[in-house]
Amino acid sequence: MRKFKLGALVLIAALSVSAAAYADAFRFSFNTGDVAFAYQDGWWDSHHRWHRWKNNREFVEYRQRYHDHYSDWRHDRDRDHGWHHR
Questions:
Q1: Separation between Cα atoms, residue 69 and residue 53, nearest integer Å
Q2: Which residues, at least 6 apart from 49, have a Cβ–Cβ distance to it below 8 Å?
Q3: pLDDT digits over 38-67, tens only?
Q4: Considering its fold, how many domains does the chain have in total?
Q5: Is 6 inside any structural domain?
């Protein structure tokens, strides 16, 4: 019985740690590979559709992780509204 209690405690502790790690993990609500151009106020997808960031966390995470594909200004700054023909 003692081994069972110890095993149950270990299992509960392991599940608690993995649940906390999952809660801290951030997942994008879109396919980041579909982003053609990203800006402070949103992003163009590869089909030339404009998307606003769903929330500030999504914006910050994208900017940090994909800073090479991000321009730190609003998309409407330029005449082409941030859509650049490749």
A1: 15
A2: none
A3: 999 999 999 999 999 999 999 999 999 999
A4: 1
A5: yes
